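Each letter names a residue; structure tokens follow underneath. Both lines appear below:
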Amino acid sequence: MASTLLTGGEAVVRAPAAHGVTQAFGTPGTHNLEIYRHLAVYGVAHVTPRHEQGAGYAADGYARVTGRPGVAITTTGPALLKIAAAVGQAYSDSVPLLVASPGMPLRHPRQSTGLLHEMRSRTEALRGVAAFSHRVSTVEEIGAAVARAFTLFGSERPRPVHIEIPLDLLETAEPVGDVRIAAPAGPTHGEHAGTPEALAAAPNRDLAAPGPTVITVPEETTG
């Protein structure tokens, strides 16, 4: 298996693109620009709402209408907390949603310094409202984390996930292998509900469906 040098920012775009992602929502910021550099290269269009909560709901709506997982990109700290409301709603409604965000550098000291809108734990904050929240520690691990997310979308009850990439990994080039692809599964959330084809066919399918069965129960007789 050949290795390629990729930054974390490129890896976090390459992996979803390999799973068919062509649309993302989010807010560019100082801490996530390395992700944005690679969107157009991999054919991923982008919509920028007013803030991160809007990005989360837009990605949620996209997933409901198209049947494909929605993808949202945030910056750090308060930006990630803004999208938590949309993540919680997606979890409640079984909507496949992938949130990617930068995090504290790998070698950041445990003592608080206020760097990057520092919080106690971004992963713990999102873990309370998502199916899982995972902080990677290498560029290679990004592809595995994204494959895990798409495996969940296709083989389990679809729900939102969060992947955090340490800031120093976003701009660090490391050798990685071929992108990992989630194993194909049976019918998914998007294959039987919400696709344009399914919505267009729904009225005719309902009209062609057999009507309800009526069972007549004889009245009780008394002697």
Q: What stands out?
A: Confidence is low (pLDDT under 50) at residues 186-194, 205-217. Residues 109 and 125 are 20 Å apart (CA to CA). The first strand starts at residue 4 and ends at 7. Residues 139-155 form the longest helix (17 residues).
